[in-house]
Structure of TetR/AcrR family transcriptional regulator:
Amino acid sequence: MAGRPRGVEDSVILRAAADLIGRVGPVGLTLAVVAREVGLVPGTLVQRFGSKRGLLLALAAQSAKDAHARPGRERKRHERALEALAELIVEPMASMATPETFANHLAFLCIDLTDPDFRRHALSIHRAQGRAIEDLLKEALLAGELRTGTDAAALAASVQAIASGAGLTWALDRRGTLGQRLRQELDNLLSPHRPSRHDLEDS
């Protein structure tokens, strides 16, 4: 069996595919377009992934793997749990700089919702994100970043709903950037649960 061309690992190809989805959407994505982007011939991608579907499934699987690893990375980078939470929500959306890019990624999500093989990976990402959000909120609660008695599980569900829905609202009204909208919506949600000065004086 011939060796793979050096310097073009699967991870590079998958990153290129993810970028291209943002630019042309999953329908416009072809093996030829991806191959040209990374300097390979389409036949090489056929050998590695079998088909466009195989490539997209590999991308979905890699995205799920990244979703499980991301919480630990973000926690190490930030002193406070709520700071890590904000980055956990915003960072995956960083590549969606325009409503058009967001729409193209949303089109990929539509595949996730209708194809069982893709849905399995999307559900894994959803569950990993939900656990990470709840863990960070529980940590914030223990550290005094949230008011005593805050229901971390219920709040986590609301945070995840914001992470899923704020992009659609932003893509419609187009005020600010997606990152700004996510941070603002998250702050609006968390503000009532943050300890007041009176709470801190009594603690």
DSSP finds ten helices and no strands in the chain. Residues 74 and 147 are 23 Å apart (CA to CA).
